[in-house]
Write a structure and sequence with these properties.
By secondary structure, this protein is α+β, with helices and mostly antiparallel strands. The chain is built from eleven helices and five strands; from the N terminus they run αβαβαβββαααααααα. Strand 4 and strand 5 form a beta hairpin. The N terminus is likely disordered.
């Protein structure tokens, strides 16, 4: 699967999945409440947003509901990975779980908050409580989550956020590496470092590497100076791909962007500017 295929990022597809998950959670525990939260609830989600859900359950069913999550989610869609937020790992009334699904974009991670009814009206319950924190979590898996979040940040035009995420990701793998700003390369190196530290994460690391590769051109466009973007668009409209690629590669970005990414970017710009491309002359 191509993680960057625009068809995979149709918000309607994500909304349908969210509704399936909500129904499955409610069905497992009659009388519980399951509802969207975050950007999905506010109506501000973009194509890259997570699926953020809250599941409010009776106190007497809290442990049962937490234990049932893998089976409940798996009945909707095969789960590729499941992690627990270490800050709430031992909380008796609140947990936060992160799930990635097979065959879906990594952007659409499920962030599932499970809350006992008695704590439902206590926002942030047990956050910062040392007794609620656990140590049974994978630092390399957390680094891979940072890598995916960094892709989102770059695509949203937040390079400083992306840099911070990658720096923390490298720290979690113990890798003595630096963030260069060549986003695809940085993310690929972080994925490789995580898999080297924890080989069982190899399949997930591969998906992260494919994600970075798929978005090479998307990473490149925001990095170009405004004047260069205008000239690239003018050349793309005229079909002068070779000149546009040469311009991108010599515009001063260090290290110079890869040829493949430049060609891919010019192709994307031609699609985006299709209404400005003059029709071919009559035969």
């Amino acid at each position: 699967m191509s993680e960057g295929d625009p068809g995979d990022l149709d918000p309607a597809r994500r909304a349908a999945l969210a509704q399936e998950l909500l129904r499955a959670l409610r069905a497992h525990c009659p009388g519980s409440r399951a509802e969207p939260r975050g950007s999905l609830a506010r109506g501000t989600a973009d194509a890259y947003s997570d699926i953020d859900l809250t599941w409010i359950v009776p106190d007497s069913r809290f442990d049962d509901c937490v234990a049932a999550v893998p089976a409940v989610l798996g009945a909707v869609r095969e789960v590729a990975s499941l992690r627990v937020d270490p800050d709430l790992q031992n909380s008796r009334k609140r947990r936060l779980l992160f799930a990635d699904f097979d065959g879906l974009p990594l952007f659409w991670r499920l962030d599932l908050e499970i809350v006992a009814l008695s704590a439902a009206d206590l926002p942030g319950y047990d956050q910062g409580n040392p007794a609620a924190r656990g140590e049974d979590w994978s630092r390399p898996a957390s680094a891979l989550a940072n890598a995916v979040a960094a892709v989102k940040a770059v695509l949203r035009g937040q390079p400083q956020v992306a840099r911070g995420l990658l720096e923390r990701g490298f720290a979690r793998t113990g890798a003595l590496d630096e963030v260069t700003g060549d986003w695809a390369d940085d993310i690929t190196r972080l994925a490789e470092a995580a898999a080297a530290r924890e080989p069982a994460l190899g399949p997930l690391a591969d998906r992260v590497r494919w994600l970075a590769s798929d978005h090479r051109a998307d990473f490149l466009w925001p990095a170009l100076p405004d004047a260069v973007r205008e000239e690239v668009d003018a050349l793309a409209v005229l079909g002068r791909t070779v000149q546009a690629v040469a311009l991108i590669r010599r515009c001063g970005i260090e290290p110079p962007p890869a040829l493949r990414a430049c060609v891919q970017l010019v192709g994307q710009r031609r699609l985006a500017l299709a209404d400005r491309i003059p029709p071919p002359p009559p035969a």
